[in-house]
Amino acid sequence: MPPVQAASTGTSATALPQVVRTPAERAELFRLGGPTLQQVKDNGATVSMATPKPSRNGPAVAYVQDLLDAEVDGKFGPLTEEAVKDFQQEHGLVASGVIDRALLAKLDQVFPGGVKAPATVKPAEPKPTQAPGGTKPVDTKPTESKPPVKPADPKPTPGGIDIDVLQRTCGCGAPHGTTPVPTTKHIRTEGKSIFMSSPKAHRDGGAVAWVQERLGLKPDGRFGATTDGAIRAFQQKHQLPVNGAINKQLLEALDTHGKKIALGAPTKDRIPTGRFPKPVMKVKPSPNFEPRDGEKIDSIILHDTGNPVKDVAKAENADLRWLTTPGSNASSHYIVQRDGTITQLVSDEQMAYHAGQSYLQGKDSVGKRSLGIEICNQGNGAEPFTEKQMQAVIKLVGYLREKHQVQMSNITSHAAVAMPAGRKSDPGPNFDWKRLRSSVA
Ligand SMILES: [Zn+2]
Fold first, then answer.
1. How far apart are CA 86 and CA 98, in angstroms?
2. Superfamily of 23-114 according to CATH
3. What is the fold, at CATH topology level, of the domain defined by 282-440?
4. C-alpha 101, offset from chain centre
5. SS (H, E, C) 64-86
6. How far, in Å, is the centroid of ligand 1 from the Cα of 184?
7. Using one digit for the tens of pLDDT, what is the confidence trace for 165-189?
8. What spacing in Å lies between the alpha carbon of 286 and ligand 1's midpoint?
């Protein structure tokens, strides 16, 4: 399935007044939709947050968000819940995601007086002219060792946050804070900006896998305690500020001192051309694409549309509509219907929105360097891929492999590249990879 980018969550970080009210006033406020900070902080009063979740919204949520380095908007959403759970887990509490007395007591303990350790503010840095790696072999041009940098703050913040870098140096042009799950473009692009946003759920993905692999960890794309610990150990060893953050300094140091990774598919002889002429196809342009930013196509990723609607015409019309609807933020380069019809939606030259957070052959952002093919199928492992569809997929993949010289090892599934590992399962388990591979090899 194509990744679906969530809608804006809003980011207005405003000063939320701390108001002390009478118990009756508090009760009324609580009833109306949110306890005050004082209610929540008050040891003597009940501090459990009411459900449903919207009733949690308010200054108390903002207070917690601020300490957990979540976006401070006073709205209790999934990302705040995730940040709360992370904190609870890290500090031996029940990971309920609920703002309750135990959470607040622990926050008070970790951040005495509700004061966060000041963030380490780095001076604005000029953009590097050389990619820090990932897009070039990491060991061709080692960068010079940087002079040791002393942590500006002796008390590291849990998890490590680089909000300052986030706000200032990304340069990706996207409105930060409005994309709950930033693409790896936000997190790590070649030579541009590298920042990790918070809360931690944001961090999971291909950039994390990139770091994990260079730290000698299994690249599953999940930023957890093991990754955090390994980052801190690496930072300490290489005299970087020890904060567990994936930031530019870390990535540069990993390029130089981290585990060397063989990037890209192994070079083989040129793939012979002429066996697969361009198949007949329709064109239905999708507005959902962006430039590849100079990345060369090196992979072909297969998907299924995963639409459970049984009526084939309805399902396929909906699939085509979704992938071409402005704002759906979903697309693929090609879609193959059950009757074998191939439709091109996005030019090969552009990046279609089909891969999301992803990782392949030592590099993240697979979307930037791949072609995506959606195959209309329920994706449940039960509905067969039709004979006409298989023939069309073979013709299309064979043609694209020749045209873009894609190695066999880089013809793979969304399931294989999606990050964190296990996030996607398409195409379904009954897709005949053996037939495809033997046909286009
Ligand atoms: Zn998919």
1. 11
2. PGBD-like superfamily/PGBD (1.10.101.10)
3. Lysozyme-like (3.40.80)
4. 32
5. HHHHCCCCCCCCCCHHHHHHHHH
6. 17
7. 232 233 333 333 333 233 344 444 3
8. 17
